[in-house]
Amino acid sequence: MSIAVTTQLICFSILSLIIIVGSLGVVLLESIVYSAFLLGGVFMSVAGLYLLLNASFVAAAQVLVYVGAINVLILFAIMLVNKKEDLKPIKYLNSRKLISSTICITLLSLLLRVDLSNTWILADPKLSIGEESTIRLGEHLFSDYLLPFEVASVLLLMAMIGAIVLARRDVLSEDISTGLPVDQELIEKSDKPLLIEKK
Amino acid sequence: MTNGLDLEFSFNEALKSFGVPSEIAHIIWLPFPMLIVLVAAVVGVLVTVWLERKISAAAQQRIGPEYAGALGVLQPIADGLKLLVKEDVIPEKADSILFTAGPILVLVPVILSWLIVPFGQNLLISNVGVGIFLWIALSSIQPIGLLMSGYASNNKYSLLGGLRAAAQSISYEIPLALSVLAIVMMTNSLSTVDIVNQQSGAGILSWNIWRQPIGFVIFWICALAECERLPFDLPEAEEELVAGYQTEYAGMKFALFYLGSYINLILSALLVSVLYLGGWGFPIPVETITRFLNIPIDTSFIQVITATLGIVMTILKAYLLVFIAILLRWTTPRVRIDQLLDLGWKFLLPISLANLLLTAGLKLALPNFFGG
């Protein structure tokens, strides 16, 4: 075995270990903040796997989008609403845990069976385009994948408008959380509080 | 275009002549550039700290550090040693794991980004294809470290500071990336070496600052905001938030934040010089000078001089920008958080989009000047 292959094997094992342990931690840990930080670690390790596959642009995009944007926003949301209150006890918690873990283990065994029974066709590593993949990605995004790309951007726009509508009370005629009518004029006057007082 | 010095090639050839296989030679070579760049970064921080002390003193009509070495040049080393021997305090109610991991997560991406800073044609750690995009991606990890240390300190000022830092960093990343994108569009490549080579045609006249003046200003403002320098140092605004996310930190962990912010400042200055000021290029192209003097450019003597000149030019340009950043810090007032976000989202973002559109249009109209 050459040095390059050994290095790859070591990196792959470490990254896989981090991904598996980290994802289990995201699901199983009680503290939601720890879960969010571990999720960032898992995203980073996935970027590492992309690097091992010679897809450096995808790896950098993974770090930028998933770690730099999505994970930071998740953390932001958690920290802005980090109330210290005890959650209501959920009924039949143990049996719920049992059922969900059974389903997960069944799905995992199904995936393992597919993996082991299938013979995978490996691409010739000599045909790897490496650094040229950035150009190839751009070509595909502007030709045969143009429609999905544009539709995804429309989807994001819709999500953004939806979030603004939910967050701004003056768009809807009644408040979503309380069901009381919203006074439209309140929004315009800065000297009056935005919150509706119950009468 | 000449290849310039290729130290790795020469090193590997030298080892091969001793009968070392090329793979082993490569592994022996690997740590050298990394160590050199790491040492250069730390020395750069020491120089910047000294400059900051001296220039702030001049701005306030003081003398500044004077007794530690000539003109106080040893003062930053004394500062560093002080931080090194201080007690490492972790507050009792803090989350000790996240409290320790936070500063590391802030520093590591900044140091990793030095991977792509070129000091010459072959004088960089790795000419990776994603180049400048790697820096943008890595700098987006930093807010996680800031949020982590802000949360783990279990202190309201720290948490607010961390949240502010993350908000600021997210807001200014977008115009920053868009102004870099305009450069990338002109170069047709993400690689920092290609970006410098594209500016090397006619010396100072072909530098990107003349073709991208709006992009240059946007990039510099956003880089200052990303480094949390005044006028954008809201995350650690002393009057409001004590010291922001650094409030509970002491000793070496505080030093990591300190080091990280200064390394980031030097890195940003270096990247401004690479993207807009012609990188290692001399104001008059070296090829023109050698042709004028009738010396063949391939002689090893000229190669060594060219490489040295390249390193000196890169550092000179970067430190000119560091000087401007320090002057800005000691002469401008701080903006408010709402002004900061307004500037980012309502002014810089539309302007940088318009700049991108303008660059694309000019690239189509004048392909000779805008890298068609």
What is the strand and helix layout of this fold?
The complex is a heterodimer of chains A (199) and B (372).
Chain A: H1 3-28, H2 32-52, H3 56-80, H4 93-117, H5 133-141, H6 146-167, H7 184-188
Chain B: H1 7-17, H2 22-29, H3 31-59, H4 75-85, H5 96-112, H6 131-139, H7 142-152, H8 156-187, H9 192-198, H10 208-211, H11 213-226, H12 238-241, H13 251-276, H14 286-293, H15 300-331, H16 337-365
Helix pairs in contact in B: 1-2, 3-13, 3-15, 4-13, 5-7, 5-13, 7-8, 8-11, 8-16, 11-13, 11-16, 13-15
Written description of the protein model:
The complex is a heterodimer of chains A (199) and B (372). Chain A has 199 residues and is an all-alpha fold. Chain A has 7 helices and no strands. The longest helix of chain A is centred in the first third of the chain and has 26 residues, at 3-28. Chain A has helices at residues 3-28, 32-52, 56-80, 93-117, 133-141, 146-167, 184-188. In chain A, helix 1 (3-28) runs antiparallel to helix 2 (32-52) and helix 2 (32-52) runs antiparallel to helix 3 (56-80). Chain B is 68% helix and 0% strand. Chain B is globular, with a radius of gyration of 22 Å. The model of chain B has no long low-confidence stretch (mean pLDDT 84). Chains A and B meet through helix 2 and helix 3 of A and helix 6, helix 7 and helix 8 of B.
